[in-house]
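Office hours follow-up: a student asked to see two folded examples consecutively, so here they are.
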Amino acid sequence: MIRSRGFGTFVFIVAILSAVQNFIVNGIGFLDAYTGSAFGCGHEWFLCNGQVLPSLQALEKSLSMFIEFMHRVGVPILTVLLLVSAVGALLRYRGWREIQLFVGLSIFFVLLEAVLGGLAVVYNEPASVIATHFGVSLLAFACTVLLAIYVRRAERVYGEYLESGVKLPLRDPAPGVSFRWFAWLGVPILYLDMYIGAYISSSGAGDAFRGLPFPAESGIYDFHHALLLDWVHRSFALFLVLWMIALVAWTRRLRGERPDLFRGAVFALVFVVLQACSGVYLIVSHVSVQAFMLHVSIVSGLFVSLLYVAFQSVPPFVPAPSRASVDVGRERTAH
């Protein structure tokens, strides 16, 4: 059954559902933070105001309780989907190290996200911890998406493995070291920019600054530390637009050999431009809920796209030899 094509399709579909559910959970979490609903169930975890399942009447009367409870309900659904896809992927594609890597990272970051969320509710954590929670949520989403991508890639070469016992690599030969450094350096820059933006929002200073492209306020301000961070955040945002343009230009020269890198870079450029536009919308709308949700959702696609390009630039892992490939090798040697 594990070797049937239907099982491979099942694993891929569940992996996609895991990524979609992760996006939904993150989206509800972002809405939770924006509306101040994090304590809609009180300072309790796993209970919601002393109950495992609050009554429908209570949920109807309290929007904050409804949002927070929906966020909590989404986490176990995500966990089940992720575990099913992880077990299925390891059973079918365990010889490919990319699958092992992203199964482990997905489970780790999803569990870490849940723990940080529980701690934030129970202990009323400061803005720095809430921003860290946001960053971990994006890492969890990126890893679940990449798991689905590499499950799909593994399925494409699985038929060859069944016929010959040879496990083909899931990625093409790596480009030059300089490109690899350039792609990977963009990841921590983007992550730091996301963290600063989440910190500003969590500190309550998100609607404090005006002016484009930089804040028009003076340094003497109630949120003077956040003003400096907002300058850094916007500077990094403009810098990242230029970075993605350079990434597209570089990968365009490689698209004959590595079209995957070019496609990923184009996605990253589109997302970073949309992210910049949503940032402008966020400012002129005085941080409306629509602008906020758009801004934090687009950055998810940007982070996944850049991380995909960076990981694709790494030299392909050598798949672990299987018993079938060893037997084929022995037969060839014997002949």
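And the second, which I mentioned at the end of office hours:
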Amino acid sequence: MSYPFLKGHGTENDFVVLPDADGTVHGDLSAERVRALCDRRSGIGGDGVLRAVREGDGWFMDYRNADGSVSEMCGNGIRVFARYLHEREGEAFPMRITTRAGVKVLDRAGDELTADMGRPEVLGETEVSVMGRTWPALHVSMGNPHAVAYVDNLAEAGPLLEPPEHDDAVFPEGVNVEFVVRRGERHVAMRVHERGSGETRSCGTGACAVAVATALADDAPRGTSYRVDVPGGTLHVVWTEDDRVLMTGPAVLVAEGVTDL
């Protein structure tokens, strides 16, 4: 069976987009198909799959990690998803998109897109470990779980070939782990290991979690904008007075075609 696909990325966090308006093309979307699509040698390659399914008058973003597992939300992915809906399905901005973490609203910000990522949940202190070294971390939920750890140098996290160790009682379904250094006032840089995908070039919800954790550490007033550098580029994040997290960054469609993977 052949079916259409698109390829896109947000700060080099890349995704395969699958148009499937009525849900009949991919059915339940098997983990095997997701893994085949995301394979960087024998497939199209990507950190995950974004399936576009009609839901009522709007769209549902069915997001899967590269290993085929289901995920609640993807911050870079939802900007790519919105770019696809605008350029290929004719959807106008501002745009409401349903996810497993609720409805998200996206709008233009010049050439970039801003996503209202909703209200963060700060759930307390925890720890993460890599290669026998342990750091304190802040547990932040952006609809999906994050552990934000500050380090002196991003290289301290090592190659991140395996998931950092974490408390399974706190994160029974795994966790996205961000390692963060300060670059200047209201300016941080991060690396991330995403559950189900490994280390990626960027993580949008992770950048939001990092901005929230850093704003708390700085006792910064709401509305302060943080620059978050990731290996694939830069995101800007604001935690607003009304307890919303707004993330702004690029979203680019780079290819489309037909595959039988």
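Two things to take away from it. The chain has a mean pLDDT of 97. The CA atoms of residues 41 and 101 lie 31 Å apart.
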